[in-house]
Amino acid sequence: MLNIKDIYAAYLQKLNEKNQTKRYKGKEHWFHASSSGMCMRKIYYNSVEQIEGSGIDNNTMRLFRLGDLVHGDIQDALMLHAKKKKVDILIEKEIKMKDINVRGFFDICIVDDDAMYDIKTCNSFKWKFLFGRTKDPEPAENYALQLGTYAYWYQNKYDIKLKKLALLYYNKDTSLMREVNVPTSFIDKAYSYWEDVNERFKIGVPKVELGIAPAYEWECNVKYCQFYDHCGGGLKGISKWRKK
Predict the structure, then answer these.
(1) DSSP H helical segments within 132-176, as ranges?
(2) Would 139 be classed as within a structural domain?
(3) How far is the C-alpha of 77 from the C-alpha of 170, rounded, in Å?
(4) Is residue 33 part of a domain?
(5) What confidence tens digit (pLDDT) does each residue in 37-70 have?
(6) CA of 214: how far to CAs of 22, 23, 217, in Å?
(7) Which of 52, 70, 137 is nearest to 108 (CA)?
(8) How far is it, in rounded angstroms, from Cα 165 to Cα 118?
(9) How many domains does the chain have?
(10) Is there a contact between 194 and 31 (Cβ–Cβ < 8 Å)?
(11) pTM
(12) Cα–Cα distance between 208 and 196 in angstroms, integer?
């Protein structure tokens, strides 16, 4: 009998390979804007050493695909609206900043409103800390730095000051959608972050240090980091070494 789960997994693997070839083949040395504010060792392994990490498991692949589908639907809807209402909207625009070696693709820019958005899918657990009564006391800044990176490029490319930055969240469990405004101060913060990355990489691979490599403790996990084994287990590796 046909194993539908395996067939779908193979399909997603082919889509991922096609996307990797289209977007990243021959451009491996660039830092990814989507890695803003994340583990610097991971960035180093990916773009400086350019080593091949471990594969993505099927469950994570399905989660990524769901995110891609949501992105595509929202962007398609915006482009149809732009065509009908004669509104100037940019989607999936490539950015390149040679001075800090950063490349990426921003999701949405409503040119007429001087507003830039990044689409993020999340589960209900994450949603609760974003919009529920109990807010995350230490919210992660990596998404804000990512959006700030795109915005920095846009402002310098077009000599325009953006008035609004926002993360557009889509709850995968309930289909609810809400925005979170990001202070425009993250535009300069993002550029400073990438300047710091470049300075640290002149010395070599950053040492394991929580807040930098990794930026967040949860990153040091074989599920979330394709370089976990190459790194030696990150924080857990250091902990084991100290015990010995």
Answers:
(1) 142-158
(2) yes
(3) 15
(4) no
(5) 999 999 999 999 999 888 788 998 999 999 999 9
(6) 29, 26, 6
(7) 70
(8) 8
(9) 1
(10) yes
(11) 0.92
(12) 16
